[in-house]
Amino acid sequence: QVQLVESGGGLVQAGGSLRLSCAASGRIFSINAMGWYRQIPGKQRELVAVSNSGGSTNFADSVKGRFTISRDNAKNTVYLQMNSLKPEDTAVYYCNFRLRAGTSLVAHDYWGQGTQVTVSS
Question: Of 16, 20, 107, 114, which cross-links 12 as Cys (Cβ 3.0–4.6 Å)?
Answer without folding.
Answer: 16
